[in-house]
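User: I'm preparing a small set of examples for a lab meeting where we compare how different chains pack in three dimensions. I only have the primary sequence for this one, and I'd like the structure in token form so I can line it up with the others. Please keep the answer compact; I'll paste it straight into my notes.
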Amino acid sequence: MNSRSIVGYGATQKLHPLSFLAQLISRQVSGHFKLYSGTNSWSLFLSQGKLNFATDTDAPFDRLDRHLQSLSNEISSLVGAVRVQLRLMFEQSPKQAPLTPDYQAISWLVEQSHLTQEQASSLIRAMAIEVIESFLGVQEGSYDLLGLDDIGEYPVLCQLDLRPIVEICQRNRRQSLLSSPSSSQGMAPAAQSVATPATSAVSPTVATGNSLAAPTSPPQLGVVNAVPQTAGSSSMSASGDVRRVTYTIACIDDSPTVLNAIQEFLNDKSLNVVPINDPVKALMQVMRCRPDLILLDVTMPNLDGYELCSLLRRHPSFRNTPIVMVTGNTGFIDRAKAKLVRSSGYLTKPFSQSELLKMVFMHLPAVGSR
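Assistant: Understood. Below is the structure token output for the 370-residue chain.
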């Protein structure tokens, strides 16, 4: 995904990090995904859904130094003087987008031949397990997704499969909870329910990355094959098979160009995009396909988007279905009209793939509560 920046939601909301990871893998996202919660933030740099680097703002150089100290038993050049030099050179340096200071430090170690690229990959993977383990525990916050055009080029030292990393993190969290029962009081409800027996074949587990949306309730941590059933999620069975659940998105627009662009942007096995180019017939078509999300153009002949949104909201089946108004109008009055007809969001034309994905990320987590 090579696109411009997406601004994060800003306001704190409930988050389901495991599902975010599934979506990032499923959509083969390239860019910088950043999650904020309290005083900490987590950064995942990705290329086509593969992890290049993961870090957070909780003492990143202490984490790097611990891992380098462990590696020094095998790599003689990683002496204390080199590790001190790293801190002096990079820890307090101003952030040079897109690299975080700890990633700059690892890149420098490779450039100076203190680490081979294979050793750097192993180091980054070990650090990512720590970072993602804490990432999975986030319950509330906000996030940004920045495309490659916004963050610029950076040296890619490795491309890691996120799925096994997440499974390790889940296992670690489960073991931590089992060994320290009292600590579960401060964990997310998902973490407290890790011992629940398997009752469903469907889960938001990252598996092979075909899940598209966050669940309405946090998934259980540490149990790969036994997690609660959720709409629009995927799971991996004991035999490694992936069971997919598909979301349906209805796109109502009289422009074939816009419909084609949306279909191309949302081209994923877990999404069923239903294009509808006649607003008058849209209501009946929407009734037939029962979508999980509706993208609705405002300016259409015979029946505009505001009127159609109002009609949909009067129908009991669509009172809570996310409806996003798609329009070239950006004025205050237009946004006020959208609120009056109880639309769920507002997407301005022309939009990028990143902006469309933001709307999917934002609104699909709510569909399971219909």
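A couple of notes for your slides: The longest strand covers residues 40-47. Residues 251 and 262 are 8 Å apart (CA to CA).

User: Perfect, thanks.
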